[in-house]
Amino acid sequence: MERPTVGLYLVATPIGNREDITLRALRVLREVDWVAAEDTRHSGQLLKHFQISARLISYHEHNTAQRIPQILKYLAAGQSVALISDAGTPAISDPGEELVRACIQAGIPVIPVPGPVAAVAALAASGLATGRFVFEGFLPLKASQRQARLQQLAQEERTIVLYEAPHRLQQTLQDLLAHCGPERQIVLARELTKLHESFWRGSLAAALEHCAAQPPRGEFTLVLEGRSASQKDEETSPSEAEVRQELARLLAEGLPRSAASRQLAQRFQGSPLWTRRRLYDLSLQLEPPPGSDCSSAVELSSATDDETDS
Q: What is the pLDDT of residues 206-238, one digit of tens each?
């Protein structure tokens, strides 16, 4: 058997369905000198399934300080190492990121062997925009860091992909709703590639109701709609109550409805939600100022002419 190029191989493994492993991944796992695994028992079962005999070494978030120098020593001695995680692509939301940086600093080749990634699988099947997206991984657990991150994500215009554990899903949905609003669309991808794979699609408000009715089980990947132009318009526009108050003030000062509507439309010109036509219609719902002798017919004609000229 020809020895593989010396380096750190980042080998993607199935996220559920074992048939998703690639032929290249199987060959590399057979040829390398060492396989560094997040959980040697779990990975041992995978390797046994494919009849691969390999020397396993544990590598996880609790032993990086010890293992990184050891793995670098193997690599420096001319031995090849494959890094695998419990599922999916190593170094993505994974302590393998530190090992990759250490290898690069030491001048050791890092060789990706691509394959399954839950984030990409969920995004592709979500039905949301896929042209531009951001991968967020897990949200911070510390309250201050979490709130700061959620505020940033609420302004993000690209589709957002997150991971979440089932016992924290409802709290995360509540946090997202508080920052992004009840109508923002989300997809809950559950148990991807596994027997009970499912996709739930709808608004954040409906997602909370869904999870309350069906307590979450399994691993979740969340795909959240980015902030749209219409959502930005709604957020930057004055509320209807504020507009009513301004219209009432202008009418009380003696301005005709058409003039008051025109003046406010110019003030709110950055907001397509408040056109002269809409402002005029809203003014008709207000009580006319005392002593006003304005003709509604004349006002309506004037507002229509204004709208045509705009």
A: 999 999 999 999 999 999 999 986 665 555 567
Rounded to the nearest 5 degrees, what angle is found at the Cα of 216, between the Cα atoms of 211 and 222?
Answer: 80
* Sequence-ordered strand ranges (E) for 159-291: 159-164, 185-190, 198-203, 220-224
| CA geometry: angle 294, 297, 300, nearest 5 deg | 95
Contact 21, 39 (CB under 8 A): no
Is residue 4 scored above 80 in pLDDT?
no
- Rounded CA gap, 216 and 236, in Å? 35
What are the residue ranges spanned by the domains of the chain? 8-116, 119-228, 237-290
CATH 3.40.1010.10 given to domain 8-116: yes
* 48 class by beta-carbon count within 10 Å (0-12 exposed, 13-18 middle, 19+ buried): exposed
Mean pLDDT, rounded, of the chain = 88
Q: How confident is the model at residue 1 (pLDDT cuts 50, 70, 90)?
A: low
Residues 6+ apart with CB under 8 A from 90: 10, 11, 12, 38, 83, 84, 96
Each residue of 77-127: pLDDT tens digit?
999 999 999 999 999 989 999 999 999 999 999 999 999 999 999 999 999
Smallest Cα–Cα separation from 119: which of 11, 216, 224? 224
For 119-228, CATH gives 3.30.950.10
Gap between the Cα atoms of 24 and 115, Å rounded: 10
